[in-house]
Amino acid sequence: MRLITAIIRPFKYESVREALSDLGVTGITATQVTGFGRQRGQTEMYRGAEYEVKEIPKVKVEVAVPSSLLESALQVISQAAETGKIGDGKIFVTSLSGAVRIRTGERDEKALI
Fold it and tell me: Helix, strand, or coil here: 19?
């Protein structure tokens, strides 16, 4: 099992969610976050005044998937979230040693489906 954590642009969340649902992913956690990468923020205009935004709003999407779905999930997230511009985000993959569905007590991959 793997945990995929994707940091994406907020307006791309719906397309990422739909793509993962079409793939068969049954659970997604999404959180609004702020941060910066290589670009170290961005310059914005408000009422004719220019100001610098150091932390950029993003959405963090977390998905636990069986190892057999990992490559497909990475591919659909990358395709759905891409704009081709700096700031599209990152995807991190970590190993999961276990999962438990609280209601039924099912464990590991059975708890993910």
Answer: helix
What tokens does 53 get? Answer: 């935004």
pTM: 0.85
CA 33, CA 27: separation in Å to the nearest integer? 19
Report which secondary-structure segment, H or E, holds 60: strand 56-65
Residue type at position 10: P
Nearest residue to 37 (alpha-carbon basis) of 55, 11, 62, 59: 55
3-state helix, strand, coil in the chain (%, to 5): 30, 40, 35
Other beta carbons within 10 angstroms of residue 111's beta carbon come to: 18
| Cβ-count burial 82-110 (b if 16+ within 10 Å, e if not) | eeeeeeebeeeeeeeeeeeeeeeeeeebe
Residue 4 has pLDDT above 70, yes or no: yes
Q: Measure the CA–CA gap between 53 and 51, rounded to whole angstroms.
A: 7
What DSSP string runs through 41-55?
SEEEEETTEEEEESS
